[in-house]
Amino acid sequence: MMPTSELAELLWEGTVDTAYMVFWATLIAVLVGLPLGVMLATMDRGGIFALPPVHAVLDVVVNIGRSVPFIILMVAIIPFTRAVAGTSIGTRAAIVPLAVASIPFFARVAETSLREVDPGLVEMMQATGGSALDIVRKVLIPEAIPSLVRGITITLINLIGYSAMAGVIGGGGLGDLAYRYGYQRFEGDVMLWTIIVLIVIVQGVQLIGNGIARFIEHR
Amino acid sequence: MISIEHLTKTFTHRGRTITALDDVSLTVERGEIFGVVGESGAGKSTLIRCVNLLETPTAGRILIDGTDITTLRGAALRKARQHIGMIFQGFNLLDSRSVAGNVALPLEVMGRSRRERNARVAELLELVGLSHRASAHPARLSGGQKQRVGIARALAGSPDLLLSDEATSALDPQTTATILDLLKRLNRELGLTILLITHEMDVVKRICNRVALLEEGRIVEQGKVTELARDPRTRLAQSLFGPPVPAANGHQRVVVGFDGRLSLESLLPGLLRHDDLSVTVVSADVESVSDERIGNIQLDLGGAGVEPAIAWIREQGGEVRLA
Predict the structure, then answer these.
(1) ipTM confidence
(2) Handedness of CA A207, A211, A217, A218 (dihedral sign)
């Protein structure tokens, strides 16, 4: 058994590392994924920005991004990670594969949210004389915000899972902790506590996400 | 105001061609309320959506104040649409915005300054009687209030023309009446021309000056509401008053239309003073149509006194049709 104070310190460090990776990766995923989601939702045939060839290419690229298992993607893009972060090892470097994996994921999530906006509202905006850009800025995105917040919550939780795998390349964080102590050194109590902390974090993120979505919903 | 000329719209779905509108022509005069009625699937919705080019016509022209709107594209089309208001069955309000924010939407599209927008929104909410709900969100409003917001939004850019796509179909009868009264008031006070589509005869009766009946994409009847309603042979009259009932054996069916010159109260006592005449009242209806009391009474007349009785009714100013 590990002394409680040492265990608490490890858990705290792991939590901070996980939060750091997940926060930056989610931020990048949303900033890049949302425009992609808008393109996916509006560029197909009959869409307000109808550009079917661009849509087709984007669709395939996003699917490829979603098909590659995270653990393989992470290793496969090590040169890219090194180019961007200057190193391929450590918490900061792990943000790169996490973001790359989450961009197509969030793009799909955003596409779904945007497509769920009542087409009657788009039509109203067209009848009002609004441009396609007006429709995106004043109708699609604002109306989809509660749903997008739920999507961000899903992405965050997904990333907490991915970030555990990032431990394999020395990414740090709670997953790394559980892997090194719990799996490699048979310290069952560390693994158990790590899992408990992860459960609490996931619960907390989901609760906060739902709360924010409900608060801004106006229904 | 609007002149629709030989408008045809076909849809191709899985290799099959469906004709939604078949050579439709009609004219809406400035300042009138024109209704298009018909069952669902008759093409009403396609027709009204062609007027602001939400649907692109397959053939034909639509002139609005002399401009053929079907030739417009891009910025010119958006500009033209800013001068045509539209209200919808489902209201189409943004949940993400307050009442005031929804009404401001067209003004933002038109690039008005915040100060101009605020002033105009306050004015519009006053007009539709919703000033006290300016900061409320649509979810907190009743159906009638939501449509008032829709109307205020449609009027934001001071259009001359309002398109109403089944605007009262989702409302209960009392609320429908208040919304129709509001539209009538806007028509009178602002000189707003209204083209509306509906499947509700009551809407036509209550506010329309003229009406067209659409059936399978064709206009089968068109004219002034008061005239169509008075003539029991028309489909409009039949939907208002019900279909004719066959005459009793050996009797002459007579339909007497009246419009204020001859009243029901004076007709029957007068007829009963005739000799050798049996009178059976089959049906009698009075409707208030476009602020006029009109109606018809269907009588079965028998005996030798039929001819003089009919002559007498005509003398009294009644419109007699033998059926």
Answers:
(1) 0.86
(2) positive
